[in-house]
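User: Before I run my own analysis I want an independent prediction to cross-check against. Here's the chain; please return only the structure tokens and, at the end, one sentence I can use as a sanity check.
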Amino acid sequence: MINSVNNVTQVNNVQNLRKSEGAAKVSRDADSISVSAEAKEMAEVYYMEKVANETPDVRADRVAEVKEKLKDPNYLNNAVINSAADRFLSALGL
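Assistant: Structure tokens:
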């Protein structure tokens, strides 16, 4: 009786081995993903909005630079004033 129990165990081992070999033979196709143009555009808008929110409204380095330039009396001449006025008007669309 004991010998027949061992034989059953050996048969079970062979069956389990065959099951695992069969499972290994299963082939799978590679996964793929596609992103629509609309989703790409939305991601770009999200990124730009995030950068805009993180960027300060006032550039302290530029303000300090202009303050230093204004301390020099020779800096303010007609050419500089006209250039600044032209940039200001063009920013307003005039």
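Sanity check: Helices lie at 2-24, 37-54, 60-71, 78-91.
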